[in-house]
Description:
Layout: E1 7-9, H1 10-24, H2 26-35, E2 51-54, H3 55-69, H4 71-97, H5 109-127, E3 131-136, E4 140-147, H6 162-175, E5 183-187, E6 196-201
Antiparallel strand pairs: 1-2, 3-4, 4-6, 5-6
Helix pairs in contact: 1-2, 1-4, 2-3, 3-4, 4-6, 5-6
Amino acid sequence: MSSEKFFYPNRMGRVILLSMENAMGRERLNEVLKTANLEALQKLPPNNLDKKFSFEWVAALQEATEKIYGEREGRELNKRVGHLCFNSGLREFSPILGIEDLPLRLMPISMKFRVGLEVFSRVFNQFSDQIVRLSEEDDDFLWIIERNPVCWGRKTSEPCCQLAGGILEESIFWGTGGKRYKVEETDCIAVGAKACVFKIDKVPLE
């Protein structure tokens, strides 16, 4: 792994911590912070766009949650935190990007799907050191994270980016006006892949 340091903006880190507290309660969050050696984050970072919330911190929070709750339950909880992150984080970033001004309601569902993903990728590429690109196959969209804080520096036997998956699921739900799609992480840097790849079915579950 590169020794170079990469960051989320403080605002994204703040959203993650508040979503974790919402999902697990203050006492358990403090336990996670202690396990991750991040007790300093009991004081929330400021609500600004300064890129100072380290990728190492994001990954350590995921790993510590798995240690405390057990791998399976911990990863499910991390996914739930991802859902909460999007719902609170979108309100933080949508005025900056002009997301709410887009005529999404008037678009056909296929276009709405694609535009929603492209706009959402801009949040990370523009405001953080995370690198995301979108690709497309006949039956799927591919959400490819080439520099991913969620598993930064980790080594696991299975994909472990449930936080990113949860955020992605909620972004699609919002972008398509309330439809659910299957989202599966097929490749993960922590398992040895070159990028974390999420396959998104083009046909909704409902």
